[in-house]
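Notes to self after the Tuesday call (sharing in case useful).
The group wants a holo model before anyone commits to mutagenesis around the pocket. I volunteered. Ligand is NAP. Logging inputs and output together so the record is complete.
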Amino acid sequence: MELKEFFENFAEVMDLDDANSLSENTEFKELEEWSSLSALGLMAMIDEQYGVSLTAADIRGSKTIGDIIEKIKSHSNE
Amino acid sequence: MSNPFSLVDKTILVTGASSGIGKATAIECSKMGAKMVITGRNELRLQETMQLLEGEGHQMIVADLTKEDDLNSIAEQCPLIEGLVNNAGSTIMVPTQFISREKLQQVLEVNTIAPILLTQIFVKKKKIAKGASIVFTDSISGVKIASPGNVLYSTSKSAIYGFVKNAALDLAGKKIRVNAVCPGMIDTHILDDVSVTSEDIEADVKKYPLKRYGKPEEVAYAIIYFLSDASAFTTGSSLVIDGGFTLQ
Ligand SMILES: NC(=O)c1ccc[n+]([C@@H]2O[C@H](COP(=O)([O-])OP(=O)(O)OC[C@H]3O[C@@H](n4cnc5c(N)ncnc54)[C@H](OP(=O)(O)O)[C@@H]3O)[C@@H](O)[C@H]2O)c1
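Result:
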């Protein structure tokens, strides 16, 4: 997985102007733009781009963008 | 004692009777004296509803409403009916930019196309009696409100809002009435969707003036009103049942 591209996809879902502010350590739920729609968007984006179906529980159990990336990796190894 | 809400001598078909609102509707209608024909895909859960029906002479039909053959087969297996409850429905939650043709079709097939075609087939095949009542389980989602991720569902349900009014006009000549119930959130398996968290639900409940979600029976009672002769002069209407949610 290309990290830069993932941050761009993430920013797109969240309607963030600048993906450069994101890193693996970003606590995404603390972002002002985070909403229940972002969670749905994130799941749909990950499904579409990475072929992995995360659940709401996966999102809930993640604090940082790095946690999400870990979840995607572990699901794609299944 | 006479009861204007009685369903004695009426045969009523309920779709989506294996769960939630449809299950409660089937049970409550049977308590009002109706003969029920219940349908759904899941045979086991349909059987469970069957066992909870009061009275005798009920029938169950396992069918997938997205299959043309199944729609026809329901009409063939069904006796002449005095009531049709188009209740089956489902949802896929997705933000607008992630809509795909496949997801759009999936939601429209169950929520919009199937109930419209089932209605058409029953009228065309004269399987629905003069003076009968057709009730749709619509939603406040669509015509009344929008909410995050509900774009496909809202689209499918607002189409039903339009269909109910037009079909009511078209079928008035046959003395067939067409109405809808528009529930807000009701406590059913529809809430089991993986994309909804319990925190989301708790926060959402607080937005209801009556401070709770509805119960399936509370929708069923309104459906009974529309099915019964108590509503003989009511057609083309959509009754909101939402604990006051859309008042704000
Ligand atoms: N719960 C709410 O908050 C709420 C609010 C407003 C409106 N509604 C509407 O109320 C109706 C009933 O929903 P519910 O809350 O009772 O949901 P539910 O508990 O999930 O029940 C849905 C029913 O629809 C049936 N169904 C789904 N797809 C089908 C298909 N392809 N073919 C045949 N049957 C199918 C299911 O049967 P099988 O699983 O056996 O196939 C099940 O009996 C729906 O139209 C829904 O949109 C619900």
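Two things stood out.
Residues 36-50 of chain A form the longest helix (15 residues).
The mean pLDDT of chain A is 92.
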